[in-house]
Specification:
Bound molecules: NADPH dihydro-nicotinamide-adenine-dinucleotide phosphate
CATH superfamily: NAD(P)-binding Rossmann-like Domain
Structural class: alpha/beta
Number of strands: 7
CATH class: Alpha Beta
Strand order of the largest sheet: 3-2-1-4-5-6-7
Helix content: 40-55%
Number of domains: 1
Radius of gyration: 17 Å
Largest sheet: 7 strands, parallel
């Protein structure tokens, strides 16, 4: 049987790395992307080839830059014709008062977290429509629903991802392409490493589950959503330990 193909953006570490390992373990050909951490991406490729004996390709580039995304999809479509699954995971955080935020900082958050989803979906969709099948999973945040103090740009970017998910799902349902988002709570990755021990403890106390989520838990939900019945589309699925 022909291998299925998935692209995971931001796969060098954290949530994206775990998603990549999950799809590889299930026999997918995995396209791995990140912007800068090529050494870490190569390490993920080595793990995939050694542990799961499956093939894997590297497509580096800034997914917030439409020229880089064109290059990434030229490589992918030359290699496999059409993705079965696109996981838009790459993202950055920005913590600080909105009134202190510079224009370039705002643009970087919106480009990386939201415009990237537009660029990658735009490139992935045409062959999916021709084939009348495809799954798109966008990694969002509970702050896209609730809003976080000192994370206004980040919250706005993820609220945008949620809106894009719901609208695109309606646009693509007639073509049998499903689009869903996973709204993560606090997940134990580098993104939260800047917090002090006290801040971490306060956050854990506020989470009904009493702990951060793991990247493997998110990867499992992404896998499940990507293989759910086709009637699951346009949903923003919370994985937040009961926080919201
Ligand atoms: P990490 O910081 O651990 O990893 C981020 C990944 O994204 C890295 O592989 C990084 O690679 C890549 N990346 C960043 N910018 C770009 C870019 N412009 N182009 C391509 N790749 C890029 O983050 P997490 O694993 O924690 O987060 C993954 C996703 O989950 C993000 O969308 C985040 O917003 C979301 N999320 C995370 C939560 C958490 O608590 N951790 C909570 C809610 C949502 P490189 O270094 O090479 O740029």
């Amino acid at each position: 049987m022909e291998k299925k193909n998935v692209l995971i953006t931001g796969a060098s570490r954290g949530i994206g790395r775990s998603i990549a390992l999950k799809f590889a373990a299930e026999g997918y050909h995995v396209f791995l992307n990140c912007r800068a951490s090529l050494d870490k991406l190569n390490e993920v490729k080595t793990v995939i080839e050694k542990e799961y004996h499956t093939s894997c390709g590297i497509v580096t580039g800034d997914v917030g830059d439409p020229r880089d995304v064109s290059g990434i999809f030229e490589q992918i479509h030359r290699s496999c014709g059409c993705l079965d699954v696109l996981v838009n995971n790459a993202g950055i955080s920005y913590i600080g008062l909105l009134m202190d935020m510079r224009d370039d900082e705002w643009r970087r958050v919106i480009d990386t977290n939201l415009s990237s989803v537009f660029y990658c979906c735009r490139a992935a969709i045409p062959p999916m429509i021709s084939r009348r099948s495809g799954r798109i999973i966008n990694i969002s945040s509970m702050w896209g629903n609730a809003g976080a103090s000192c994370e206004a740009a980040y919250s706005a970017s993820k609220a945008g991802v949620n809106g894009l998910t719901r609208a695109l799902a309606k646009e693509l349902a007639p073509s049998n392409i499903q689009v869903n988002a996973i709204a993560c709570g606090v997940i134990d990755t580098d993104m939260n490493r800047q917090l002090s021990e006290d801040e971490r403890q306060a956050l854990e106390d506020a989470i009904p589950a009493g702990r951060y989520g793991t990247t493997d838990e998110v990867a499992q939900v992404v896998w499940d959503a990507a293989h759910a019945p086709a009637y699951l589309t346009g949903q923003v699925i919370g994985v937040d330990g009961g926080y919201l």
